[in-house]
Amino acid sequence: MKRVSTDHLDRIVEFVRARREDDVSLGDVVALAELTVESLSSFFRSLDMAVYRELSEIATFITNMKAEIGRLQPNDLKQSRIPAAGMELDAIVKATEKATDTIMGAAEEVMAADPAQPGYKALVDERMMLIFEACSFQDITGQRVAKVIETLQHIEARVSRFAEAINAADAEGYMTDEERRREERKVRNILHGPQLDGAGADQSQVDALFSKPEGEGGSQAAIDALFK
To answer: Torsions phi, psi of 73, nearest 5?
Structure first.
């Protein structure tokens, strides 16, 4: 930003010094005011330009932000893709429950049947066919899971591009009190859920822990530490 003109300031100082010991007339006051206005005019012009540039940059940033939000297509995510993914997951749960009930029901009938009774083989064959048909749910479930994964990848790509465009950084303390309580409860009660292959404690670690003599590591604290 430009500074006040030094030449104009020097002229003001010289004017004041020259009139310091003389009576100051109205003309002198007017002349001093003119010099002051002249010296500050360049400063205010530069100030106006600086404010204009900053406001212009803010306006450009807001315009770019709106464009990026538009590319994010939040309405499409909210009204179409996310609800569709939710319905697919709901269908997966229902199909899994139905298949499980069918398989378990057929298996119970086979186990309860008397092999010595007539028609036992026909019953077993019929129930086995029901089990095979129920197992076919995996194919449809796999297709539904693939659609959900595609939606998640789509959302991830858009959010990542948006974050890069606005140079976003992770904020501290983003969790609500309820979310924080749930996370603390998961850690406290070891509610990590099913682990992926290669993650978490494997069976050999669990077996080794429980095979130790009492007092040599089989305490509750050691068990909790294993699953954290």
So the answer is: 50, 60
Q: Which two tokens stand for residue 97?
A: 């429950």
Q: What's the rounded Cα separation, in Å, for the pair 65 and 72?
A: 10
Is 181 strand, coil or helix?
helix
Print the domain residue range for 118.
73-169
Write out the DSSP string of 36-77. HHHHHHHHHHHHHHHHHHHHHHHHHHHHHHHHHHHHH-HHHI
- Is 81 within 8 Å of 154 (Cβ atoms)? yes
Please report which confidence band the pLDDT of residue 185 belongs to, taking 50, 70 and 90 as the band edges.
Answer: confident
Q: Please give the structure tokens belonging to residue 47.
A: 């100030």
Cβ atoms of residues 105 and 206 within 8 Å: no
129, part of any domain: yes
Please tell me the total count of domains within the chain: 3
Torsion of CA 90, 92, 93, 95, to 10 degrees: 120
Copy the structure tokens of residue 155. Answer: 């959302």
User: What's the pTM?
Assistant: 0.54
pLDDT in tens, 46-79: 666 777 788 888 888 888 888 877 777 888 888 8
Q: What CA–CA distance (Å, rounded) separates 173 from 196?
A: 28
Residues 78, 59, single domain; the answer is no
Question: Are both 181 and 153 inside the same structural domain?
Answer: no
Q: Counting every residue, how long is the chain? A: 228
d(CA 38, CA 9): 10
Q: Assess contact for 31 and 22: CB atoms under 8 A.
A: no
Q: Is the pLDDT score of 206 beyond 90?
A: no
